[in-house]
Design goal:
Chain lengths: 195, 381
């Protein structure tokens, strides 16, 4: 099977003034299509750094990053933005929903960058909310949702544009045990069904 | 268009702040609409001034008088079709704030040089016959509810009668309209003969002459020959076209254009900082949210436009509200300036200023939003 993510000798260095910290020292990694991979490590070990590189939010200091056969380490900022819109869905620890928008408007955001009509966008948003089991909360604002529900909305937003890759950075970090299990279960079943 | 709900929601993220900002911009545009509207109305008065008419005033100052005997001499000049004279009566009705634009005039001469005043023949005859008769504009009649047959007292701030009284009584005998010059509907004309006989000083003199010329192309030449005629006399003259005269008259009561521009400049300058810092703060608070948009694939340029569109929406909305209130209030100024509707040019200028304001205040916050780095913003750095 083809590797969906492939990292070769990836180096990531953060430079702040005179100080330079090397976080990734020549990393090699392959992830197959359909895989459900979890990165584990203590805080500060570089998990976020790695995910940012794979998701095209940041660029490596050295080495090659390929996703779905495309070298993304050589893309410009503007090209990366386009690439992310097409290929990646993100889920963060703190949901990162826009507080002034309803759940459905939050989920619609990635679709605003496509050429879909308003009716098509609405349909896709409804489907995504149905997948995460929140069809009845479409009109709610993030503050009117529980942590677990907010994270489901964030997952729906990450899914709605049918990305190649779902990148989740500590998606259960802010949730209690039971809700965390629920969210992980949801992600796993999504991986099986939509993979 | 599909981004509109996103921009609108961002604008109202902090409702109180947006309401305050909106209100201050709105008040500025209300002020702009009123002041600039009055200004435009005055300029329109000047533009409508008759180029066929010359105004002959004392060269020392417009407020100095001229001998009545000049009338016959000016009438003799070739190219002059009619001459009339006018005086500043400077009167109010009952209360000093009820200022009345009142002028002594000679009916027959007045009619010849002022074709823009439409007065029924019988009312004109009544004026010519009645010593204390007066004809008034339709707007003035409406303002005080004066009718033909009313006896109206005016208090002159300049002219006294031999007993020392400054109160003058007039009988309204006619009401004129001036359809082509709406700003002239608030004037009050009465007989010069009555005025000159009853006043206690300056008898036999007039405020200024109005000269109707046959051919406007000869205006400059005739003006020069009038001034030459009275050169080296005790009362030298300065003759201008009516248009020049009204412009210099407006200069005397203060260069309205200049003052208005200064006031508005100060107001908008203050607004620039208030609005700019409010937008900047709003962007600063939203940095994580703007970063999320970027992770979703919104380009730097698109984020810049979203913030700019927000400031554009704010400024245009506030300007629209402010100018709407201004046009609602504007008719109440009719008594003072004679213009009923806010001139359209003011609305167009207002819209242009709103766009400039939006760019000036929005550009910096928008640029800040454009520049923000996703990874740092998400990590709260
Ligand atoms: N933008 C940055 N500038 C400087 N150092 C950074 C930056 N981002 C991360 N680091 C450092 O890199 C290391 C790894 O961070 P991170 O990838 O966030 O770890 P994790 O997600 O595993 O907790 C940490 O030591 C952190 O301080
Ligand atoms: Mg992390």
């Amino acid at each position: 099977m083809a590797a969906i993510v492939s990292l070769r000798n990836v180096v990531k260095r953060y430079t702040r003034g005179k100080h330079s910290v090397e976080v990734l020292h020549g990393l090699n990694l392959d992830i197959e299509t359909g895989d459900f991979v979890a990165l584990m490590g203590p805080s500060g070990s570089g998990k976020t750094t790695l995910l940012n590189l794979i998701g095209g939010l940041d660029t490596a200091s050295g080495g090659e990053v390929s996703v779905a056969g495309e070298r993304i380490d050589s893309l410009s900022g503007g090209q990366l933005a386009k690439w992310r819109a097409r290929h990646v869905g993100f889920v963060f620890q703190f949901y990162n929903l826009l507080p002034q928008l309803s759940a459905e408007r939050n989920v619609e955001l990635p679709l605003l960058l496509t050429s879909l009509s308003a009716a098509q966008r609405k349909k896709n948003v409804q489907t995504a909310l149905a997948i995460v089991g929140l069809s009845d909360r479409a009109k709610h604002k993030p503050t009117e949702l529980s942590g677990g529900q907010a994270q489901r909305v964030a997952i729906a937003r990450a899914l709605v544009s049918d990305p190649t890759l779902l990148v989740c950075d500590e998606p259960t970090g802010d949730l209690d045990r039971a809700t965390a299990d629920e969210i992980l279960g949801l992600l796993q079943s999504l991986n099986r069904e939509q993979g | 268009m599909k981004f509109l709900p996103l921009i609108w929601a961002a604008l109202w993220r902090k409702k109180t702040r947006t309401v305050f900002t909106l209100a201050s911009i709105m008040v500025a545009f209300l002020l702009f609409g009123m002041l600039q509207g009055v200004n435009a109305a005055f300029n329109a008065t000047v533009d409508r001034a008759n180029v066929n008419r010359l105004i002959v005033a004392n060269s020392v100052s417009f407020t100095e008088s001229l001998p009545y005997s000049y009338m016959a001499q000016i009438e003799q000049l070739s190219g002059v079709s009619a001459v009339s004279q006018q005086n500043w009566f400077g009167a109010y009705y009952q209360d000093p704030k009820n200022f009345v634009f009142s002028f002594p005039a000679e009916p027959a001469r007045w009619r010849r040089v002022s074709p823009e005043y439409k007065l029924p023949e019988d009312q004109f005859d009544a004026w010519a016959r009645t010593r204390t008769g007066a004809v008034i504009g339709i707007d003035l009649a409406e303002k005080y509810g004066w009718k033909i047959g009313d006896r109206v007292p005016l208090h002159s701030t300049i002219w006294t009668k031999p007993g020392g009284s400054s109160d003058w009584e007039f009988d309204i005998v006619g009401i004129y309209t001036s359809p082509d010059s709406p700003t002239r509907g608030n004037q009050f004309f009465f007989n010069y003969a009555y005025f000159d006989e009853a006043r206690s000083f300056n008898k036999g003199r007039v405020g200024w002459y109005i000269v109707q010329v046959q051919d406007p192309r000869q205006s400059a030449q005739i003006a020069a020959s009038i001034d030459k005629l009275f050169g080296n006399s005790t009362d030298e003259t300065e003759t201008k076209t009516e248009k020049e005269f009204q412009q210099s008259f407006l200069k005397q009561i203060g260069d309205i254009n200049f003052i208005v521009t200064r006031i508005l400049f100060a107001v908008f300058f203050a607004l620039l900082f208030a609005t700019g810092s409010s937008l900047m703060q709003s962007v600063r608070e939203r940095i994580p949210e703007l970063a999320v948009l970027k992770t979703l694939g919104f380009s730097d340029g698109r984020v810049l436009w979203l913030v700019l569109a927000e400031s554009l929406m704010l400024c245009l909305l506030a300007a629209a509200l402010g100018l709407a209130v201004a046009s609602a209030l504007f008719p109440s100024l009719k008594g003072a300036i004679g213009v009923v509707t806010l001139p359209r040019v003011v609305i167009i200028e207002g819209a242009a200023i709103a766009v400039l304001l939006a760019l000036a205040t929005g550009l910096l916050p928008a640029w800040r939003a454009r520049q923000l780095n996703i990874v740092d913003a998400l990590a709260g750095r």
